[in-house]
């Protein structure tokens, strides 16, 4: 239990607006594990997440994405959502006239998760009757996203810089929400997997990762202990990564 | 005459008089199909109401009023009963405005008279319905609504056609008087047929600290609706809001707006329009005229084009005649943002579901001061129509 591959990315080449962004990315994320993705701005991290979710602007030129053994490379986003993939947006749009409560009901699809209760637990009940993301602060946007995901209850969670624009106080709450999402507080074998993009690494203090990757120019350059990788980047920057011996054999 | 001209300027002589219609004697004569249609526009016999009025073609079939302080009568009866009605009759709408007002003046097919006595505040809505039951008739009504000093009325009017009727012509002259510190909300939910023409001709006069809130909702196919109520704010601190929530399906032509003349200091006006075109044409007009100092007026037109057919035209106009006025407008027309659709798709909604949710959200405009029950009725109508978008 717990080690079957939940997500498999095989030699993925992706083009965005005519530009090649991913150049042969491969990774395996087993069930119940959390992996962290490091890399400079523009290295292709967000593109990888958006492609896994299936947004049409991200054109797969070559390679495959498998989820729970099924090839989902050509499925639209909602089919992937139905199969248990969820994404946290970095800059989610405002949906005017649609109340967060209504949105959460749609995310729930009658799965029985109690919206009110969960919102109250994370101090977000006051936002249920506001338009989705309308006038929300940075921290509120993150909470709104994570609440939607908690209610959607996906088996694979894609998190794009969950800590960006969040103050220390809110970081605690966001950390707790992600821990819940990824079953970090349970002793039973976990079934939820996560792929987290982080710049600051802060979030890893709340949500430990099992494996880390460094992405440079559209490829995964190295993988290993996320804490060690992160410390290395902090000390020596990404230049060091480029010359690093741990680099995956091409 | 071209098809488009006929749509824009329907001719009365192309229709039969409503008095020749198959007019029922009582509500019991209506079929279950007719009741189903009436229910779609919110007519439910068991709902709590202060008063009800139902006119089919040219006859008032049902008219009932419950509380003291509310008078609800067929207008023909009120004209016989009260001499003083002359002071209000054709005073906010010019009887020579056009061929439609003239025809109504010459041959009236009834209408309703509502008067709320001074200080009487009615909690539940008064429901009226003007119903076209016979194919091909022209129905010409004239309504008069008087809210006396310190009184409050929430009027909801649902107009529709028999489920078997496609073609018809409704001309509705309405005159509203809101006296000092009175409040009137007027909510219209229309569900006509695809060959029905509608020409409301409306005049409003609001006195000192009075409030008039009008909301017009049309979400289903209709041949054409053209309406431009004229509202005069004549007393200090008077306020008017005109909201419209419209969907223009293919072959529908909607030309809607309002003129508000702010004639007293500290009067306020707002015109809010939301229109969606799924292939039809929607013209959203608004004309605010500042004829007194210290007035505040705002106009907001938002349009969503869901098709490359049809059109949305936003035509705002602001006229100021004093230095101390605060008048503004904003207009925006566009398509649904792809990122919003994708966002909802990532939450498990199909593209169609995502689109219809965004459209529903776009149309759920909050009208400040509108009672919750009426807001709910509008939201229900939008939610119901969403399935057909």
TrEMBL record, chain A:
Segments forming a coiled coil: none
Highest taxon above the source species: Bacteria
Keywords assigned: ATP-binding, Nucleotide-binding
One term of GO molecular function: ATP hydrolysis activity
Residue span, ABC transporter domain: 7-242
Protein name as annotated: ABC transporter ATP-binding protein
CDD domains: ABC_FeS_Assembly
Assigned protein family: Belongs to the ABC transporter superfamily. Ycf16 family.
Record-linked InterPro entries: AAA+_ATPase, ABC_transporter-like_ATP-bd, FeS-cluster_ATPase_SufC, P-loop_NTPase
UniProtKB/TrEMBL annotation, chain B:
A Pfam match: SUFBD_core
InterPro entries documented for this protein: Fe-S_cluster_assembly_SufBD, SUF_FeS_clus_asmbl_SufBD_core, SUF_FeS_clus_asmbl_SufBD_sf
GO biological process, one term: iron-sulfur cluster assembly
SUPFAM superfamilies: Stabilizer of iron transporter SufD
Domain SUF system FeS cluster assembly SufBD core: from-to ranges: 136-362
Family named by the database record: Belongs to the iron-sulfur cluster assembly SufBD family.
Protein name: SufD family Fe-S cluster assembly protein
Organism classification: Bacteria, Pseudomonadati, Thermodesulfobacteriota, Thermodesulfobacteria, Thermodesulfobacteriales
């Amino acid at each position: 239990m717990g080690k079957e591959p939940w997500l498999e990315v095989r030699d993925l080449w992706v083009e965005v607006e005519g530009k090649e962004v991913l150049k042969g990315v491969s990774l395996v994320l087993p069930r119940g594990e959390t992996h962290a993705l490091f890399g400079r701005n523009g290295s292709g991290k967000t593109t990888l997440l958006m492609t896994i979710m299936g947004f049409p602007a991200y054109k797969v030129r070559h390679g495959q994405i498998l989820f729970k053994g099924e090839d989902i490379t050509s499925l639209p986003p909602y089919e992937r959502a139905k199969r248990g993939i969820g994404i946290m947006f970095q800059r989610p749009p405002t949906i005017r006239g649609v109340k967060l409560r209504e949105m959460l009901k749609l995310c729930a699809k009658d799965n029985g998760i109690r919206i009110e209760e969960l919102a109250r637990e994370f101090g977000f009940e006051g936002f249920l009757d506001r338009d989705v993301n309308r006038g929300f602060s940075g921290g509120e946007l993150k909470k709104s996203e994570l609440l939607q995901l908690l209610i959607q209850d996906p088996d694979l969670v894609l998190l794009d810089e969950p800590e960006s624009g969040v103050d220390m106080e809110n970081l605690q709450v966001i950390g707790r929400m992600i821990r819940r999402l990824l079953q970090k507080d349970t002793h039973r074998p976990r079934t939820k997997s996560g792929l987290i993009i982080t710049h600051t690494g802060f979030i890893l203090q709340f949500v430990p990762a099992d494996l880390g990757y460094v992405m440079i120019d559209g490829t995964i350059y190295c993988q290993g202990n996320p804490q060690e990788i992160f410390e290395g980047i902090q000390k020596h920057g990404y230049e060091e990564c480029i010359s690093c011996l741990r680099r995956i054999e091409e | 005459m071209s098809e488009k001209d006929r749509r824009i300027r329907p001719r009365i002589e192309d229709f039969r008089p409503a008095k020749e219609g198959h007019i029922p004697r009582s509500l019991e004569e209506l079929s279950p199909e007719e009741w189903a249609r009436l229910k779609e526009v919110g007519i439910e016999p068991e709902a709590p109401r202060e008063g009800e009025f139902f006119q089919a073609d040219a006859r008032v079939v049902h008219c009932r009023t419950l509380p003291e302080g509310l008078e609800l009568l067929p207008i023909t009866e009120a004209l016989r009963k009260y001499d003083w009605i002359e002071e209000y009759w054709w005073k906010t709408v010019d009887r020579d405005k056009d061929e439609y007002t003239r025809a109504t003046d010459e041959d009236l097919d009834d209408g309703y008279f509502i008067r709320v006595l001074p200080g009487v505040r009615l909690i539940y809505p008064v429901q009226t319905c003007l119903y076209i039951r016979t194919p091909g008739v022209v129905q010409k009504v004239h309504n008069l609504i008087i809210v006396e000093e310190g009184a409050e009325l929430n009027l909801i009017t649902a107009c529709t056609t028999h489920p078997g009727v496609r073609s018809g012509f409704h001309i509705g002259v309405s005159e509203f008087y809101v006296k000092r510190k009175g409040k009137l909300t007027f909510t219209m939910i229309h569900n006509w047929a695809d060959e029905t023409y509608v020409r409301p001709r409306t005049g409003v006069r609001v006195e000192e600290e009075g409030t008039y809130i009008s909301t017009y909702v049309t979400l289903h196919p209709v041949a054409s609706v053209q309406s431009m109520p004229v509202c005069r704010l004549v007393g200090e601190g008077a306020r008017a809001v005109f909201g419209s929530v419209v969907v223009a399906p293919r072959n529908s032509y909607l030309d809607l707006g309002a003129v508000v003349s702010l004639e007293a200091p500290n009067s306020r006006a707002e015109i809010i329009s939301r229109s969606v075109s799924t292939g039809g044409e929607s013209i959203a007009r608004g004309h605010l005229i500042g004829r007194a100092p210290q007035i505040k007026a705002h106009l907001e037109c938002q349009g969503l084009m869901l098709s490359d057919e049809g059109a949305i035209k936003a035509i705002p106009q602001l006229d100021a005649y004093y230095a101390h006025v605060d008048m503004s407008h904003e207009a925006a027309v566009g398509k649904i943002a792809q990122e919003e659709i994708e966002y909802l798709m990532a939450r498990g909604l199909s593209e169609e579901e995502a689109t219809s949710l965004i459209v529903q959200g776009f149309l759920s405009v909050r009208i400040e001061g509108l009672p919750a029950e009426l807001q709910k009725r509008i939201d229900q109508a939008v939610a119901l129509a969403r399935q057909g978008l």
